[in-house]
Structures are given as C-alpha cells and as structure tokens.
Amino acid sequence: MFALKFLPDQNGADMNGEGVRNEVKTWIKAGKHSNIVRVYDGFIYGRYLVIVSEYVEGGSLRDWLEANQKKAPSLEKAVEMLRDILRGLSHLHTRRIIHRDLKPENILLEDEVPKITDFGVSRVVETFSQSATRRLTNGAGSPLYMPPEAFGENTPMPQLDIWSAGVMFYEMLSGGWPFTGNSMYALFAEITGKDPRPLPEDVPHELQAIVMTALLKDTAQRFQTAEQMREAIDKAWSALLQRQQSLSETISDENWLEREAQKRAAEETERRRKLPSEAQATKEPLSAKDFFKRGDKCYKKKDYDGAIQNHNKAIELNPRYADAYSNRGNSYYMKGDYDQAFVDYNKAIALNPQLAHAYLNRGDIYYKEKEYDQALIDYNKAIQIDPQYAAAYYKRGEFYASAYYYYTNERDSANYDRAVRDFSKAIKLNPRYAPAYVSRGYAYYYTGNYDQAFKDYDKAIELNQQSAAAYHNRATVYRCKGDYDRAIADYNKAVELSPHDADAYWSRGNVYMDTGDYDQARIDFNKAIELNPQHTYAYSQRARAYVGLSKKAKVWADRREFKKKAKTDRLKYEELYKESKREK
C-alpha cells in the first residue's frame, strides 16, 4: 500500500521542478531501511508537490506521546524508541543526509517501530566538515527542537540532528521540553544562553547524562554521531540493568537487552562482511590534487554533483585547499545553491586572500542578490589582484551597463563609457570573448552608436552562433533603424535558441506592433506573460494590441494589470535605490 502526500506551494508561485527532483532524489537515496519511511517517487501536480511513499498506519510519535500522557509509558519504551530513531539517523548521516527538522510529528510508527519521515527541509550535505552555511531559520527546523547554531548562519552538521534527538528523548522521559520560552525571542534566549531544565528526579542519572550530552551548546562536546549516541544508550541501559532492583518497576522485559545484543552482533557481522570489497576499492588511495583534477573534469562535463563529490574528497584530504573550496563553490553556483557557493568562496578567500576568481564569483552572488555595492568591491578586488583577468573586467562592465541604474537610479552616458572601457579591456585580453562583444554592443546601443553596436553583435555571432543574446540585441538595433524584416529574423533566431526567454517574445511582439500585425503581436505577448506572469510591459503592449483588434474589455483588463504591476515595480526600485543610498 502506498501513501500520497500533497504539499502545497506556500509561495504562490510555480514550484522549482529541479528543486523538487533533487528533494525526491535525496529521499530515494536514503534507500531501504527499517527506520526510514521509504519514498518511491515525487512529482508536481498543479501547485502541489506529490510524494509517493510507503504507507505507515500507526500514526506519529506525537500521537503516541499524546496517547500516553505526553511521554513514553516506560523507560524501556523511551530507550527502545530513541535507539531505533538513532539507527535511522545513522543511516541518513552515513549517506550525507542531514534531516534538520526532527520532531515527533516527523516520526511515524509501524507497530511502535519508528520511521523517520519529512519532505520539506532535508538536504544532502556532501561533506560534514566543509559543507555550506544555511540560514536554518528560513524554512528549516522547528524552534523547540532546534540547537543554538540553527538560529544563525552555520554549517548543518550531524550534531544538529543529535540535539533534536536529545530534545525528543527529554520529552519522552518527562512529558515536557528542556526549553520553553513564551515567545520566539524568549525561546531563542533560553536555547542559546541557558542550561536545559532539569529532568524529573525519577529519571535515572545514566539517562539524564545522555540527554544533557546531546544538549550541550558546544557542538564539539555533543555526541559526534548518531551511532556514538546509540552506543552510549546501550552502556547506560546495561548499567541500569545491573541495578535491576532499583529499576524493577520500570523494566518489564528482562530479555530486551539480550535481544538487542543479538541484533548488534548481527549488524557487526554484516559490517565485517562488507569490509573486503571496501578495502579493495581503496587499495591505491588518491591524493587531494588527484581528486581536485577529477572534480574539475566533472565540472567541465557539467556533472556538478560529481564535481562536488570529488572536491569534497580533496578538501577532506587537505582542509586548506583554497582552490578546491572555490571550485566546489562554482558547482554549487551552477546548481543554483548560492548559499553553499557563497560560503565556499568565503572559505577560499580566507585561506588565500589573493584568489582573484573567488572574489569574482562571490561578486556574482552579491550581484544576483542585488547587493551591488558589495559586488563592485569584489570585482575591483579581483582586478586589483590580477590586472590581466578578462572576466573581471567583463563583470564590472556588466555592473556599469546594467546594475548601476538600479544602484543609483541614474542612467547616463558616463556609466556606459565606463562599461565600454571595461568590455574593451576584456576583449583586448581575450579577443574571442563573445559575451564581452554582446555586452559592449548593448552599451553602444544605449549611447546611440548603432553602427558600432552592429559590429559587436556581428562579431559575437561569428564567435558563437548559439548566442541568443547577440541575435536578440542585434534585432533590437534593426528595429530602431526601421529594418523590421531583419529584426523579425533575428528575434526568430533568438526564440529558437532560447524558447523560454519571455523578453524575446515581448520584443518580437513590439516589432509586430510596429508593422500593424496586432494579432501576431498579441500571440507573442501572450507567450511572454505565460513564461513570466510578472512581465509588466507585456500587459501594457498586449493592451495596445487589443486596441488594434477592437477588444475593449480586454484592453481595460490589461491596463489595470499593467498599472498594478508598474506601481509594484516602481516601489521596488525606489526602495532599492533608497537602500543603496543608506548603505553609502
């Protein structure tokens, strides 16, 4: 029997298909384990993510606690439950998966055997010691079960899940929580600055020690792995059995420890059985440099996961390998994981302050986040370190040609002159740098130098016939010169090369408007809005097309939508401009 879980999109926008696939792969990767809810598939259905998993009919650990006066019915049951949860956690951690939201609601029970589940905030962390910072309070974790480090920007480590397991054990033993502020701020203050509330006196000190070790604020002093915590539980329970007289009311099954010993012996036998093949696989260990080169080869093939795995290994063998951090950051960047990339670039710079490409790539993240002043600082630093770095001049030129307008609310020829100088420098250093020709052509276009813009776009297309941007921008210049046939031809090519670019359809629609082909214009504006529902000016132009087609009702509908979105855009850019002024 299967279970279907429908998770609604909370942001009111289409879900990221690639992100969904990665999330599903994370749980399929966990494989079959008796303490993990097995996931078989996942897909997007409208505004829902649908997860197909095994059906677990015993309710959640929360339901179980509520049915037993909010705590485990006996010490034995609490220990059994925690041991199985830790077994599942260990399985996840050895596969470099950190759950990050462990709580009773995310533990399902089948015949009182716990199975870890959750489909929202788990992430694959390719290496525990050098993985990336996450803003854990932004959508990951439940405050009552979150450790101190989760309230800031910190690397998600196995100890995060260890803390959560410790809170659940505390709850199973006492029926309460170790920290209970009456507000988010008060809870944060307790978790980060106070010791846990003492457990009831009737909880044996051996088990209290387990809880308090799991809840130490210093991650280095906590249990380092789920397996280590599970072993500590075994020792504590063994000590309790030796004091059987004082625990006679709580231990109901004297054969339990024997069963567990047999289970552990079987697990150890299985582990040893696998050792020969593992040893054989590592007969000739590779160096950090070998793994680094492998990672770079994977990156060139666009195998970003493979690149990350190899760079992880390089960093594991040499934790001060600055280039490995920087190149791993590049893979995370290409996967759209900018938080991970940002931390890797920071680490690379900390290890080697003369690493120009790390500054350049970190500047790109600042640029994407619209932190333009920081982006410019990093681009300048990259050029200062390496005056022959063509890409750094190109990126700074992009800043002057595009971002500078949003940063200063000013668009004058001086900015484009700076951009032209930087693009020209990049081209001088690398005469086959096609994107630099495209961008310099853009700067020439905005200063009215159409002839030079044409030359640059022609050169870009000569160097790269797959450059949709070059065809798109050249078409715009043709339109300005009134050469509509060539403009349409170039826009057609841009759409062919980049069929999901809303601007290409919008721009082609404008040419059809110029030629009086209102119906074809309407079709292109429809497509632009379909691809980007926030495309403000597509609504404005479609309204004009409807005027030409004498569809008055649709004219007013699009004009209202345009005014609403234009107001939002204006406020957004005004706020961005004010923020930039405050930062200065």
Explain this structure:
With 584 residues, the chain is mainly alpha-helical. The protein has two domains: 59-248, Orthogonal Bundle (Transferase(Phosphotransferase), domain 1), CATH 1.10.510.10; 296-533, Serine Threonine Protein Phosphatase 5, Tetratricopeptide repeat (Alpha Horseshoe). It contains 24 helices and nine strands. It has helices spanning 17-29, 61-67, 75-94, 158-174, 184-193, 205-214, 226-242, 256-281, 288-300, 304-317, 322-334, 338-351, 356-368, 372-385, 390-408, 413-429, 434-446, 450-463, 468-480, 484-497, 502-514, 518-531, 536-548, 552-583; strands spanning 2-8, 39-45, 48-54, 97-98, 107-110, 113-116, 123-124, 134-135, 153-154. The strands form four sheets. Strands 1-3-2 form a three-stranded antiparallel β-sheet, with helices on one face. A two-stranded antiparallel ribbon has the order 4-7. Strand 2 (39-45) and strand 3 (48-54) form a beta hairpin. Helix 11 (322-334) runs antiparallel to helix 12 and helix 22 runs antiparallel to helix 23 (536-548). The longest helix has 32 residues, at 552-583. The model is unreliable at 119-140, 276-282 and 572-584 (pLDDT under 50).
Question: Could you give a quick summary of the protein structure above?
Answer:
The chain has 24 helices and nine strands.
Task: Describe the structure using short key phrases.
584 residues; mainly alpha; 62% helix; 9 strands; Serine Threonine Protein Phosphatase 5, Tetratricopeptide repeat; 3-stranded antiparallel beta sheet; 24 helices; 6% strand; two-stranded antiparallel sheet; disordered C terminus
